[in-house]
Amino acid sequence: MATDYDAIFKAYDVRGTVGDQLDADGARAIGGAFARFVASSDAGAVLVGRDMRPEGEEFATAFGDGAMDHGIDVVDVGLCATDMLYFASGSLSLPGAVFTASHNPAGYNGIKMCGAGAAPISSDTGLEAIKAMAIAGPDPVPAKGTRTIRNLLSGYVAHVRSFVDTEALASLLVVADTANGMGGLVVPAVFDGLPFTLDHLYPELDGTFPNHPADPLQPENQKDLQNRVLALSADIGLAFDGDADRMFLVDENARPVSGSLTTAIIACSILDRDPGAVMIHNLICSKAVPEAIAEGGGRAVRTRVGHSYIKQAMAETGAVFGGEHSGHYYFRDNYRADSGLIAALVVLEALSRHPAGLSDLASSFDRYASSGELNAKVADAAEVIERVAAAYPDAGQDRLDGLTVDLGDWWFNLRPSNTEPLLRLNLEAPTPDAVEQRVAEIQALIA
Predict the structure, then answer these.
(1) Contact criterion met (CB below 8 Å) for 205 and 50
(2) What average pLDDT does the segment 187-208 reach?
(3) Is 233 a catalytic site residue?
């Protein structure tokens, strides 16, 4: 079955179901298109990696074959987490691609691509051009590229550890749930030799996800981790998604710590050693995030949702760190790319210096109640947004990303999905009851 390019090219990556939307022939065509795209920047080689999904090796090989057909050498880094591919791209100054469908279930695969130095490639900075070239078909050159195999795990481990003072780490009991994803490769490698006791749930690399989906954003997928933390009286739980670029925390009482609170913890930890630094947060993060950054002596900069906007803002402002409520954490010294493991180590260092525990460490930032992201199917997103905006004429409003309305003690953001006829609502208020009341108010306007 032919690859369905219109279905699989998304705003930030390529992703779809194996067989009916993406196959090896499509992977080869996209590899050729990627080679032609990066050749314009004089890239003589591309990095290719893959996660543990069953067809990953076949697809990555086909992608590399397509690149070599267009005269580009391929550096095959094999099994890798997405942030390991970013490390390779940054440290070797080469563009790269990793085959992964991140948190999607078995039966999906995809490709995350970046330019040299881990520069983001999104729909408006290259994906559309790559898609057009893949559809147009190959344009091979006489001189075929070569393929070399390179193991970068030890370099990656040293890089991740460079973000903390390893001498300051305490003997913590850490439970990590890597959900049969790529965390099973990188988490034990990074933790080896550190003073932590690691209890590792589902470390086997298995792209059929036999235990639970590798999507820790969904509360039900954190249940095993929570139960294990309680059973062992562990200090902390870490939950990773399928390609290990996202990380979520569970405290010693098995309570989830939101991405916003994790962003605040990391930001304040970095500010302790880099006073006055610029910190990025996206606009659906809790108000506690910019408050914590300001209280720590830093400067908070608010951006749109999405990694390309975070990375662009970091480049423009010189920001040291950026965080998203969805569990992505970006570091200037990680080529402005996100890394779940760097974030985990920074939190573990902060916890090592805070013997009262993670719940106490997070409590100073836990100031508001949140709705989480709520989706509503609509026929005309733009019309609904204007209707909701008109209902709050005296409130502070901006259109940085959809509609954000700030009413003082509560606020909300309503933004359209990039790929579906949906509006996404995020709302924050002082208490859970207030959140429930205000969500009902906004949903009535949407309906």
Answers:
(1) no
(2) 98
(3) no
Distance (Å, rounded) from C-alpha 404 to C-alpha 381?
14
Distance CA(229)–CA(223), nearest Å, equals 10
Q: Could you tell me the pTM of the whole model?
A: 0.96
Residue 9 has pLDDT above 90, yes or no: yes
- For the chain, helix (H) and strand (E) counts, in that order, are 15, 23
Question: pLDDT grade, residue 5 (50/70/90)?
Answer: very high
Report long-range pairs for 196-200 (Cβ below 8 Å, ≥24 apart).
Answer: 196/169, 196/171, 196/172, 196/348, 197/171, 197/172, 197/173, 198/174, 199/173, 199/174, 199/175, 199/228, 199/232, 199/234, 200/175, 200/176
Q: Return all residues near 155 (Cβ < 8 A) that are at least 6 apart.
A: 87, 91
The pLDDT value recorded for residue 1 is 57
Q: What is the mean pLDDT of residues 120-147?
A: 93
Exposure b/e, 293-317, CB count within 10 A at least 16 = b: beebebebbbbbbbbbbbbbbbeeb
* Residue among 69, 219, 214, 200 nearest 147 (CA): 69
Select from 88, 105, 99, 134 the least CA-distant residue to 13. Answer: 99
Residues 199 and 137: their CA atoms lie apart, in Å, by 48
Q: Render pLDDT for 269-281 as a digit per residue (tens, 0 to 9).
A: 999 999 999 999 9
Is residue 418 predicted with pLDDT exceeding 90? Answer: no
Task: Provide the pLDDT confidence category of residue 419 given band limits of 50, 70 and 90.
Answer: low
Region 196-211: what's the mean pLDDT? 98
The letter for the amino acid at 436 is E
Q: Residue 62: pLDDT above 80? A: yes
Q: Which two tokens stand for residue 347?
A: 């939190």
Query: Whose structure tokens read 């440290």?
Result: 91
CB 305 within 8 A of CB 298: no
**What is the rounded CA–CA span in Å between residue 29 and residue 85?**
21
Question: Strand 329-331 vs strand 337-338: parallel, antiparallel, or unpaired?
Answer: antiparallel
> Active site residue: 40, 41, 91, 102, which one?
102
